[in-house]
Amino acid sequence: GESPVLMPMVSDNWKKCFSWDGSGNMPDVEKQKLISYAEKARAKGYVLRFWGTPDKTPEQRKAVWKVLQEANVGLIGADKLKELHDFLTQ
Known about the structure:
single chain; mainly alpha; 2 strands
């Protein structure tokens, strides 16, 4: 409920919101939930970010980054910055 001018980013724990670990396809129910969160955040003027996303393997990271990108999440965080850079610029 805070103004996005005062608090522009909304951030939450991935594991609290989703059970998908980046292996295989994200379940449709969870994908729709992610899209809904991103749409609601954008509509209210917030940047949405999730922390603690699955990242044990490059495949998991890329799968998670892909669904975050497709859902138009405002910010994709990563510990493997070069790998994220390469993913985003491909």
